[in-house]
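ok trying again, last paste got cut off:
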Amino acid sequence: MVRSYHQTTQLLHNGFEEQWTWNKKDKSHEVRLYGTKFQTAHFHPNWSNGTAGVRGSQVLNYGRHYWEIKVSQRIFGTSMMFGVGTRRARLHVDAFVNMLGEDGQSWGLSHKGLLWHNGRWRQYTTPFKENEATVIGMLFDGNEGTLSFFKDGAYLGVAFSGLNEIEEDLFPIVCSTAAKTEMTLGVRRRGYVSLQDRCRATILSKVKQNNDIDNLPLPSRIKSFLKDVAK
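nice, full thing came through this time. structure:
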């Protein structure tokens, strides 16, 4: 527990900011994205008759990633979930279910304090207070293969392990059964995995727009390396 907490603290101080967001091409039709770079996901804008989700644009498998999700005060319903999954994890179902963790393609925490994976659940933390805004933090450690959660800055412990054995790409995912709920991305940071990685982050911090990478006096392979993170 202490190790993961210190890893997160180190990430926040020594890591670098990531630019990923919710994927507008990889979501339920019952999710509307808006705000700066589509950072806010609005679920079931009229009424709800099922479960809707959206996948993040960032592949998580390598290195350490930390991100936060600001949840609106409309916390209620069958299940509001936060976690990770592969491209095969479902993002919509016309039923009220715990969609993250319904099978072997995803791992999730519900607002009722339950962890779900492979259709099975276990108690992890106390249920979230209904109709009270909260911030959920997630630490994915690709080296250790773990996913840990934070709630309003409090460390909840390692939730899942063995994720470094998953060969498919893993992405952040959120979903909700509740109408007119919102989840907005906050802090997104990643740890450096090499000196090359640190150099890339330094260059990108000076680039205002992704298109500016093409104008840099660098070999095409290095430009492609930079774009892998910038996109």
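cool. The CA atoms of residues 4 and 206 lie 30 Å apart. The chain has a mean pLDDT of 90.
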